[in-house]
Amino acid sequence: MVGRVLAWLQAPVGGARPTIGLIAMVAERLGDASAFAALASGMARASGLIQFDASSRALPETAVMVPLPIVFALADAASRLAPPGVRVGMVDAPALPPSLCAAAAARARALAPGGALVVRSGHPQEARALAMAIAASQGARAAFLEGDPPAGFAPWLTLTGCLPVLCAEIAPGERRRLPELTGWRGAWLIAAGPDGSFERDGETLPSWRVPVPCADERVALWHAATGETELARTLGAAHRHPAGRIADLARAGRFQARLGGSERLTAADVALAARSGASGDLGTLAELLPEPIPDAALVLTAATRREIEALAARCIARDALVDRLGPAARARYRPGVRALLVGPSGTGKTLAVGWLATRLALPLYRVDLASITSKYIGETEKNLAQLFARAEHAEGVLLFDEADSLFGKRTDVKEANDRFANAQTNYLLQRIESFEGIAILTSNSRARFDSAFTRRLDAVIEFPPPGPEERRALWIAHLGDAHTLSTIELNRIAAACDFAGGHIRNATFAAAVAARAQARAISYPDVAAGIAAEYRKLGKSPPGSIAAEQSP
Description:
By secondary structure, this protein is an alpha/beta fold.
């Protein structure tokens, strides 16, 4: 009925909403002569509390409206109707350990009205859950916003008692200004990743980088997510996962368990979920290598085997390595592990990294150098920062194959390109030293690396060409039980052919193709033919004892 009265009063303009002219006329009758100017340029319109109908009418005939979420908030402060692009609260928020809850409460007490805080985590859900905890400590609800603030956002926040949380993932080196929110005098929270920076009025906003929970708290989080006491103890002690990642892996592990026909979650299911890249995708920057590498597939010399197992022990102990050491050891300690595997092509360096990831029950990512490097200045550093940040969140093993192309020696500056290449190397050396994950590099030569990088490595492991005993073990590991070769024949090819594991693999596949075509087991002539083909690829002649017997 009020709408009909307004339409009658404003005839012939019509419309059930009041116009600026009608409101100004009523205000003037009540003694406010400046109402027209206040409506057009006052705080109510600037904050979005009122909006003007976007039409071509003259200003006095323009209708005035109030956004629907504000209308509902005026009627009920607990209204769940949020402005477009705004979400109140979270569904399936990850559980938070007591230490993070206490840290969130402390930051809530320190966050003054009008202040701002950036909550940084490699896991978006964890950053948002902590922002929600900070808001709750201030007696408010968290209103999550992923784009620009909608019209009327500030009045709606005031009416509903919510705290704005800007959700933003920005690139390394990128700077973003905090959006202007006219009429809002409360605090701001930003749930962000580990990269980039946020500023307001030219000043960088303070950040809180969320730490990884300690081992005891990780055990409690795993227990809350799985309900399995022993499993929680095993996973919590072995892996440095943040709270959000634990929740994701528990869900993905249950899915793997059900695929296997079981309702009981095991460590193998969680490991399979991690190797499958559950919630840990590195995008186009790295390729996930999900295949497990068993012990029997890795054939190394005794010395190299000991060094690889020592590296695995170093990775397992990295979280609590300095707990009982002196202050010099604890100073600036980071739980990252960096190793370089050096040796000729085909000696098993990449396979050893796969075995290490399988042993640690961690996903393995091979870095795509083509996606990392860029011809544009600064883009390579941004890609590297994004790669390391995502890998820390995924708690995986990074493999830099043929790493000397990235970690090569710095050169004398003779032209602009040399200066930028050296800047990339400098950034990479600094970032890999602060990396809290596991990074394994492979190369054919140690001499190609910058000397400053060698100091930052925890291990350098040589992979020599295999000797006759290792070659015999490699042939057995590749041929399996689908062959008819005698012990004498195996000894003959192991002694005569100085192949590395990669060449033995290729020769085995060629022999298997010949045997499969005749539906029989692999014979000695099949293997001899495969060996001869490998020697031709190398531009060499096969040994006489091998060339004598080849399958037709």
